[in-house]
Specification:
This protein is mainly alpha-helical and about 240 residues long. It is built from twelve helices and four strands. Helix content is about 50%, strand content about 10%.
Length: about 240
């Protein structure tokens, strides 16, 4: 048994967002302590990262000697215990695993099984990635054409399952450049609400989207905060 925990220190607490499904769906299924520890570690680790796609490698976990020493291993082989725990998390569907070649060496990347993680796997499968030369973040995904989920998260707010369904429908209905332009208008007018973006897209589909819509003028900005769009703006 390890040392006694002295309690959370209020002045140093940094919150880590945890999905509700972790408690309602996943915890009842996990029956292995090491798998549970690695799952929680992955949620914490990925939350510390920046960028559109975030992942961890087994080397990242293994480098945390304090965490690694807490994994149960009858034969004392913590590295093997870590490998088994990651494999269990992948088999359960908590984590997604992709293997890429960096400097002719295979590198295994673990993503959370979320909209962002699934999008990352699709990008890797399509070859939309490149080596970076950074041993900590060995790959970068090609984001020249950001998908609608990343666009929403970076400009409007957190992604939820309901919003993800709405965004998938929008992506199938409108060209990506329309969605990008409508989001830009929402940001410029400080109306970061999807209903507002959707109203602009619907209007373009019904009435057409011509050069006048794309002019960045004061008159155009007023057009999107008054009249038929006013109901979508919080004053």
């Amino acid at each position: 048994m390890g040392g006694k925990f002295e309690g959370f220190k209020e002045d140093k607490i940094r919150s880590v967002p945890l999905p509700e499904s972790l408690f309602t769906e996943l915890l009842p299924q996990i029956d292995d302590l090491n798998e549970l520890k690695v799952t929680l570690y992955a949620l914490w680790f990925v939350n510390q990262l920046e960028g559109g796609f975030r992942y961890l490698r087994s080397e990242d976990v293994a480098a945390d000697e304090r965490f690694l020493s807490g994994l149960a291993s009858p034969d004392g082989d913590q590295a093997a215990a870590l490998k088994r725990a990651l494999e269990r998390a992948v088999a359960r569907g908590t984590l997604l695993c992709a293997e890429v070649a960096v400097d002719d060496q295979p590198v295994r990347l673990f993503f959370l099984n979320s909209e962002r993680g699934r999008a990352a796997l699709r990008a890797i499968e399509k070859g939309e990635w490149k080596p970076t030369g950074d041993t900590r973040q060995p790959i970068a995904l090609d984001m020249e054409r950001p998908n609608v989920f990343r666009l929403y998260e970076e400009n409007i707010g957190p992604l939820t399952p309901l919003i993800a369904d709405v965004l998938r429908e929008a992506e199938a209905t409108y060209p990506l450049e329309w969605i990008q332009e409508a989001v830009r208008i929402a940001v410029e007018n400080n109306v970061r609400r999807w209903r507002y973006v959707e109203a602009i897209l619907s209007s373009w589909k019904k009435e057409g989207r011509d050069a006048k819509d794309r002019r960045d003028t004061e008159e155009d900005r007023h057009k999107y905060v008054k009249g038929k769009y006013a109901d979508f703006v919080e004053h």
